[in-house]
Specification:
single chain, 0% strand, CopG domain protein, mainly alpha, Ribbon_hlx_hlx
């Protein structure tokens, strides 16, 4: 409760990015439903700090897997075992 009564002090940080990249950032935070650019950037930075081992390759693999599931391109392990005449032993 004390944190809600006395939120931590915030510091302004300035960065330089291209206008094109800023346009992408602005489109993304709005599409994702954030209230502001700052809120979005804080969230992205927080994720990068808390999960430094999570990278683009991980994200791409997760998205590819999700696409396969949605497009019904997955098979159960039992179906694969049957196809290749494999058993559990």
């Amino acid at each position: 409760m004390a944190e809600a009564e006395n939120p931590p002090e915030k510091t302004t940080v300035n960065i330089r990015i291209t206008e094109t990249f800023l346009d992408d950032v602005d489109a993304t935070w709005q599409e994702e439903g954030y209230n502001s650019r700052s809120e979005f950037i804080r969230d992205v930075l927080r994720d990068a700090v808390k999960h430094p081992d999570f990278n683009r390759a991980d994200l791409k693999a997760m998205l590819a897997g999700e696409t396969d599931i949605q497009e019904d391109r997955t098979r159960s392990s039992d179906a694969i075992k049957d196809e290749y005449d494999l058993d559990d032993g």
